[in-house]
Amino acid sequence: MTQPTFKSANRRYFRAFVPIMALYLLILMAGKFYLNSLTAEPQALQVAIALLAALPMAAFIGIELRFIAETDEYTRAIRYKAIAFAAGILVTAIFTIGFLQLFDAMGAIDVFWFGPAFFGLYGLSSVYLGGKAGL
Amino acid sequence: MKNTLRVLRAERGWSQAALADALGVSRQSINAIETGKYDPSLPLAFAIARLFERPIEVIFSDEADV
Predict the structure, then answer these.
(1) Fewest CB atoms within 10 A around its CB: which of A35, B10, B28, B40?
(2) pLDDT tens column, A24-76
């Protein structure tokens, strides 16, 4: 098997990314629309749709890790370091929020938003590390 | 490490993108190597040396040697 190149890794990534994201949006919107159309929302159905929506997210993380493994060494190094940065910042934020809640200084916060926050931080870290800062 | 990649590339009239394609890496990798932001791994350094048909130590030199 020939070594994947940066371009082939990119192509493979986007070929998987687009349908996964489309499926995620479809499940989310269709699921929400369907649940809203019911007079009563059975919890089992809510759980099933929620788990179904989470599956494309798991697949997305899988293709992201596959891309990092297949891409060139420089891009790989940036992406791994960006993951570490994003995880470090997010964990710090989680602990801070947790302590604020523990001391009743802050109300509840939806756990869902930590996911987009991580990917946002990952993206920003990738741009910063790949830019003037280098590695 | 210092390197003469930019000079060698210019001698052949190659763009960074063309060199990146030839090596199977991103253009950003080539730019990072040329600007000294990133030192390539041994396999990539050897691939560069093979492409330019130069000994590896002619292209890359340790800053301590300067």
Answers:
(1) B10
(2) 999 989 988 888 888 776 888 889 988 999 999 999 999 999 999 999 999 99
DSSP state of A112: G
Q: Is B51 on the interface with A (CB under 8 A)?
A: no
Round the CA-based radius of gyration of chain A to a whole number and report it: 19
Determine the Cα angle at A124 with ends A121 and A127, to 5°: 150
Residue A115 gets the label, from left (phi > 0), alpha (psi -120 to 50) or beta, of alpha
What averages of pLDDT result for each successive group of 10 residues across chain B (66 residues)?
Answer: 92 94 93 92 95 94 69
Helix axes A43-70, A73-102, angle to 10 degrees: 140
- Cα–Cα distance between A94 and A111 in angstroms, integer? 10
A vs B, Cβ pairs < 8 A, gives 39
